[in-house]
Write a structure and sequence with these properties.
Number of strands: 10
Radius of gyration: 21 Å
Structural class: alpha/beta
Order of helices and strands: HHEHHEEHHHHEHEEEHEHEHE
Distance between the termini: 41 Å
Length: 293
Amino acid sequence: MEEFNQEWFVNRLHDRSARGLARQISALIQSGTLPVGTRLPSIRDLAFGLGISPATVSIAWTDLRKRGIIAGRGRRGMHVCNMFLSPRPVRRTASLSSENVSLNLTSYTPDPGRLPHLSDAFEALTSIPNLNTYNDETISPALRAICAAHWPYPAEDFMATNGAYSALFDTMQALIPPGSTVAVQDPAPMRILDILDYLSTSILPLQSDTDGILPASLAQALARNPTALYLQPNINAITGQRMSRARLHELAQILRTSPSTWIIEDDAFPWFSDVLAESIGVWLGPRVIHDYS
């Protein structure tokens, strides 16, 4: 394993909160500055070098271990084991065809001809205050107002991310410990299955009809106490079908029997429908994470 200069390392960790340490070390690993195999300093040594509590370093180390980018324990210390901060899409990559087609919908990539020009948007970035700081502002006030006006239920809070799958990955990584059981609406996008594989979960497929997930299938899955439920309450990315409000209400009543199960909703096509979006959050808001892309 590669060794490195601890003084050099310490001088690059300016934010010395647990969250800040995890974020900065993640960036060093992802950029390749800390390559796979690099042995990291012990909790005690790093805490001494930074002038902070060993408990703070321990929290950061735990976060990085949960994300699967460092490994090790005990006297042997920790080392970098993976530079990928998101799962490599095994299923999705295998499904893509190399045939010469004008628009491959299985790639989930939009038609470039229908995308707006971004030059004005990029120019507007220069007027945003504190754009290049690392303040923990989850979403700009202007974007928050737009989202709140279109949200299908009164959300507790909002957060902007770098794309819908980034939001889903961050959500699942934060809420679903390795080895958990997750109930998933069937069919589900391959990227979602890749993420759940990456998190070493056990996937419970839920049967559906034209109105959405079958209540009996959900009730049967809840008997296994899943950590989370993944569903697409509006337009299903695979079938194009939409869940009815009556079915969502029925599912919400069943989910009341399993109060520890998180509900992760993926609203993939909100701007492609003239029907208002629906959500289980209407009935179970505090337990729902609604991804609106």
